[in-house]
Write a structure and sequence with these properties.
mainly alpha, two-stranded antiparallel ribbon, 5 strands, disordered N terminus, binds zinc ion
Length: about 325
């Protein structure tokens, strides 16, 4: 095993940005493929249930929405804004809850997720970025190829980020590492909980199976997809309101389902901002949740750019 710089630059001291280990890379890519296939299996199972005269019920949709929101926020508020960007401080119990919910999304343990995301910010839309849609070329075919790579191709091709380089702050947190080590248990819990809840409400085994399909597998598929919208479309489609040094964009149609992360140009312009709504009409559900946590005394030190900082980086055109 050797450590090297992901951009091909000479390694810095003993710690490289990525880990060149084929076995590790293969196991991470296999993990991504299994998580994607599990989501697709959920869609097939729901279709099969519908064919077998079990139409989608209000309970199915409620279970889906509840777990989508909780686990999606675990990724956006927890993994992304709190752990990766330290955009706000939170109580130990809040940190633990966010880390566990984020792990349930099956997008990798929190330390891996944060390390890969910090790698993305360091090389955003330049060679070394694990999921840029803008590096394949400028012809129509190359644009599509770039988008496909940034959407799903990268999940089975990304480098293995070195947590020792990118996430030392997290490695030093013993409580968080306890959660990180139990990653697969949290994924299992994210499947068992909706099944148990739905089974209890419906008072039947079939109800439990439907809870597993909607709150577990289809939710898994949906949360994966919203993150892939951000890795691909949020660097390709929309307005570029702020100077960010990359091709990140703001797009309300991406921002709504991604719980506010679609204000991605705002985010790359001001990565430590906890709330990504810089205009009154920019709906940022994750930002609202962070403000709610603040009101409840669970979060504080909410980072926000000053009006002068916003004005200084504002671009004149879209
Ligand atoms: Zn970020
Ligand atoms: Zn980005």
């Amino acid at each position: 095993m050797s450590v090297t710089d992901s951009a091909g630059a000479p390694r810095r001291g003993k710690i490289g940005r990525v880990i060149n280990d084929r076995r590790l890379r293969r196991s991470q890519h296999l993990h991504s493929a299994v998580a994607t296939l599990a989501g697709i299996a959920g869609l097939l199972a729901a279709s099969l249930l519908a064919i077998l005269d079990r139409p989608v019920s209000a309970l199915d949709l409620g279970i889906f929405a509840g777990f989508f929101l909780a686990i999606g926020l675990g990724v956006t508020v927890g993994f992304h804004r709190h752990f990766a960007h330290r955009a706000f401080q939170a109580t130990p119990a809040t940190r633990a809850a966010l880390a566990i919910l984020g792990c349930m999304a099956a997008q990798g343990p929190v330390v891996f997720w944060v390390a890969l995301h910090r790698l993305h910010h360091e090389f955003s839309d330049r060679p070394g970025d694990p999921h840029s849609p803008n590096l394949a070329g400028s012809s129509a075919f190359q644009r599509i190829k770039g988008l496909l790579h940034a959407y799903i191709g990268w999940t089975v091709r990304h480098p293995v980020p070195n947590a020792n380089y990118y996430a030392r702050d997290l490695l030093a947190d013993r409580r968080l590492m306890w959660i990180n080590r139990r990653y697969y248990a949290w994924i299992a819990l994210g499947l068992v909980l909706p099944a148990a809840l739905s089974g209890l409400i419906a008072q039947s085994a079939l109800g439990a199976a439907e809870g597993l399909v909607w709150g577990g597998l289809i939710r898994l598929f949906a949360v994966h997809n919203i993150i892939w919208w951000i890795t691909s479309l949020a660097h390709a489609a929309g307005r570029r309101d702020y100077l960010s040094g990359d091709r990140s964009t703001n797009n309300i149609w991406i921002a709504l389902p991604t719980l506010g992360e679609g204000w991605h140009n705002n985010h790359h312009g001001f990565p430590r901002a906890a709330v990504l709504s810089f205009e009154w009409w920019q709906i940022d559900i994750s930002g609202l949740v962070i403000r709610l946590l603040e009101r409840c005394g669970l979060a504080w030190d909410i980072h926000a750019p000053t009006p002068a900082a916003l004005a200084a980086r504002r671009r004149g055109e879209a």
